[in-house]
């Protein structure tokens, strides 16, 4: 590796890092916000809510992300109604199309994760909420969703890492993210290893920051559990049953 060459290109790659961080952060926020209604529809008893959510998750998870991205960026532009609509200033921008496609993908995957977490909420918590007269909507907001989100944090950390790596394909629709900058440098200088290895190291650092950030958040949200356990150590394990004298 030519370290002098790496020093000359690191500024361009850092510009791509900023774009990548903005892209991943926006997609995570929008995608997870969309995942909540998708998950609630999946656990609903109403078929007209459950069926569309199931089909949405099936289609998004069953097709390649790059196909979805190309259909949004290249495909929608062929319709005159789209080009003359109020959405065209957004849909003609590659960055917005990348955010939309990554958000939709995140909504499908995170929605299914959240659906499993909702169904894994202890039944005792739900029954306790019902016993005090909580309605279903209030119970979802105050009991079920907070527990489900806390239980899903390790999976969401993994999903965020996967989203970071999936964002590397947005350079195919001309977004100058980290991979896009590395590809431009490679094409202009005909040097492959230096830009790609440097970009890989930067992706590795971003992945480490994501993992550590979620670990910190998980520790913060688990503080109250440790406090309750410390205040009531006898609840950690039930007392052993007394053995009758005649059974010894």
Automatic annotation (TrEMBL):
It is a multi-pass membrane protein. Residues 17-215 form the ABC transmembrane type-1 domain. Keywords: Cell inner membrane, Cell membrane, Membrane, Transmembrane, Transmembrane helix, Transport. One of its GO terms (cellular component) is ATP-binding cassette (ABC) transporter complex. The chain crosses the membrane at residues 12-41, 53-76, 196-217. It is found in: Cell inner membrane; Cell membrane. Its main location: membrane. NCBIfam families: HEQRo_perm_3TM. Belongs to the binding-protein-dependent transport system permease family. HisMQ subfamily. This is ABC transmembrane type-1 domain-containing protein. It comes from Inquilinus limosus.
